[in-house]
UniProtKB/TrEMBL annotation:
Residues 21-166 form the Phosphoribosyltransferase domain. Purine salvage pathway enzyme that catalyzes the transfer of the ribosyl-5-phosphate group from 5-phospho-alpha-D-ribose 1-diphosphate (PRPP) to the N9 position of the 6-oxopurines guanine and xanthine to form the corresponding ribonucleotides GMP (guanosine 5'-monophosphate) and XMP (xanthosine 5'-monophosphate), with the release of PPi. To a lesser extent, also acts on hypoxanthine. It comes from Bradyrhizobium campsiandrae. Its cofactor is Mg(2+). The keyword Ligase does not apply. Xanthine binds at D113, I156. Coiled coil: none annotated. HAMAP family: XGPRT. It is a peripheral membrane protein. Belongs to the purine/pyrimidine phosphoribosyltransferase family. XGPT subfamily. Pathway: Purine metabolism; GMP biosynthesis via salvage pathway; GMP from guanine: step 1/1; Purine metabolism; XMP biosynthesis via salvage pathway; XMP from xanthine: step 1/1. InterPro entries: PRTase-like, PRTase_dom, Xanthine_Guanine_PRibTrfase. It is found in: Cell membrane. This is Xanthine-guanine phosphoribosyltransferase. The lineage of its organism: Bacteria, Pseudomonadati, Pseudomonadota, Alphaproteobacteria, Hyphomicrobiales.
Length: 175
């Protein structure tokens, strides 16, 4: 409609870019594991796909955990958040390991932003421990352990979503 401001995507609202390299991500996951090692032991890891798969693999390797389950949730279409859809729930076997409430289970995701995804998984496993590598202020209260907080107006670019490319020198007008 004329005069109406165009709807901004989450990435456009979060104008500040925060690119993360594979090296940095691996280091941050290891730092997360150091903290989690003080809290465990855990029976199993529950990765929130897809972003939680990479940190879950690193954390599981460091903590010696071999049981890894997934909860598959879709919400962002690239950078626009829509309705949350649970495409696959937690397996009966993992549920049993957590005594039905998630006690002794470790939920892992790459980040919390608005907290909507984390809130949904917490409702499924209220007694589980929820860990993310990065946290924005809105989602932070939902997380038990995280490594780096970034501002709400920051957009984190993960290494699996990006590629190295040419960047013009500053004096040629690069931002
Ligand atoms: O706190 P929220 O505002 O809910 O956002 C955080 C979630 O958004 C991203 O996942 P996304 O839905 O983009 O799916 P993906 O992990 O498959 O990339 C991210 O991996 C978190 O799971
Ligand atoms: O900052 C972010 N980066 C990547 N994916 C995301 N999904 C929600 N917030 C983000
Ligand atoms: Mg995700």
């Amino acid at each position: 409609m004329a005069g109406e401001a165009p709807e901004l995507s989450a990435q456009e609202r979060a104008g500040r870019p925060f690119p993360v390299s594979w090296d940095q991500f691996h280091r941050d996951c290891r730092a997360l594991t150091w903290r989690l090692n003080e809290v465990g032991p855990f029976h199993a890891v529950i990765a929130i796909t897809r972003g939680g798969l990479v940190p879950a693999a690193i954390v599981a390797r460091e903590l010696g955990l071999r049981v890894i389950d997934t909860v598959c949730i879709a919400s962002y279409d690239h950078d626009k958040q829509g309705e949350l859809q649970v495409l696959k729930g937690i397996s009966d076997q993992a549920m049993k390991l957590g005594g039905g409430t998630g006690k002794g289970l470790l939920i892992v995701d790459d980040l919390v932003d608005t907290g909507k995804t984390g809130k949904l998984v917490r409702e499924m496993l209220p007694d589980a421990h929820f860990a993310t590598v990065y946290a924005k202020p809105k989602g932070r209260p939902l997380v038990d352990t995280f490594i780096t907080e970034v501002s709400q107006d920051t957009w984190i670019f993960f290494p699996w979503d990006t590629a190295l490319s040419y960047h013009p020198p500053l004096r040629d007008g690069a931002a």
